[in-house]
TrEMBL record:
Residue ranges the record marks as coiled coil: none
Taxonomic path: Eukaryota, Viridiplantae, Chlorophyta, Mamiellophyceae, Mamiellales
Source organism per UniProt: Bathycoccus prasinos
Protein name per its UniProtKB record: Short-chain dehydrogenase/reductase SDR
Record GO terms (molecular function): oxidoreductase activity, acting on the CH-OH group of donors, NAD or NADP as acceptor
UniProt keyword terms in alphabetical order: Oxidoreductase
Keyword Disulfide bond: no
Family to which the UniProt record says this protein belongs: Belongs to the short-chain dehydrogenases/reductases (SDR) family.
Pfam families: adh_short
UniProt key word Oxidoreductase: yes
Length: 270
């Protein structure tokens, strides 16, 4: 006889986030900031990681005022300037147990073709987008496995599933994040550690201004004639993945703006 999940109440089971500990990279703005705010709202203690210490301190004060039962721990760090030994000691610095890791830090620099792009910019993007994910996962996955509990969420992109003109380096790094995420899921399959990725399309954040190196006109042209997603949309997807019942592992969430059918296929209403 089939079990009636609606009757038993199992249909609406979810994993409570209250009182858990998280670490979010790239936490001072954009998608990372939105994720931190949603986690704090859910009662999660959060270690916020970024390079801009003043932004981290402002965020700590704001969230601990709004959510007095939540601990916000700022950690200033630049992965490209941090040794392996220092990375592996990070879990000891956080004043609570981290069983949620959100690898969000990432960037794109420029839109040049492969025969004209900057090697220096490419190295910066590779180190941030790939090595940041690798390093933080290494630092926290071992503890998660030992405790047989944890969730790693990597913020990827539709660029991790497609390729497009002017995106060679960024697309390559996000494809690498996608492959790393899938491999990590294989490595941790014999534990209760879950591994997910979230792959959004067009999202309006300060990420774009970084990519265009402050070119306001280029940013305006990118978002012209359609309504892109906002950072909070992506944060909600992260919360969805984290809050599924333990029997469920969300592998990837791919989302696009309503007018978008692919990375660079956007209907513009003007």
């Amino acid at each position: 006889m089939a079990t009636n999940l609606r009757t038993t109440g199992e249909r609406h089971q979810f994993c409570s986030l209250q009182g858990r500990g998280a670490l979010v990279t790239g936490a001072s703005g954009g998608i990372g900031l939105a994720i931190v705010e949603r986690l704090a709202e859910c009662g999660v203690n959060v270690c916020i990681v970024a390079r801009r210490v003043e932004k981290l301190n402002e965020l700590k004060e704001k969230l601990e005022t709004e959510y007095p039962d939540v601990t916000i721990f700022p950690l200033q760090l630049d992965v490209s300037k941090t040794s392996e030994e220092e990375m592996l000691k990070i879990p000891e610095k956080v004043p609570f147990q981290v069983d949620i890791l959100v690898n969000n830090a990432g960037l794109a620099l420029g839109t040049e073709a492969v025969d004209t792009n900057s090697i220096s910019d490419a190295m910066t993007v590779v180190n941030t987008n790939i090595m940041g994910v690798v390093a933080f996962t290494r630092a926290f996955a071992s503890g998660m496995r030992e405790r047989d509990r944890g969730h790693i969420v990597n913020i990827s992109s539709i660029a991790g599933h497609e390729a497009y003109i002017g995106g060679s380096i960024y697309c390559a790094t996000k494809h690498a994040v996608d492959a790393f995420t899938r491999s990590a899921r294989h490595d941790l399959r014999n534990s209760k550690v879950r591994v997910s990725s979230v792959s959004p399309g067009a999202v309006r954040t300060d990420f774009t201004m970084t990519r265009f190196k402050g070119d306001v006109d280029a940013e305006a042209a990118l978002y012209r004639g359609f309504d892109p997603m906002i950072a909070e949309d992506v944060a909600d997807q992260v919360i969805y993945a984290l809050s599924r019942p333990m029997r469920t592992q969300v592998c990837d969430i791919i989302s696009l703006a309503n007018a978008q059918s692919a990375a660079r296929d956007i209907h513009r209403g003007d």
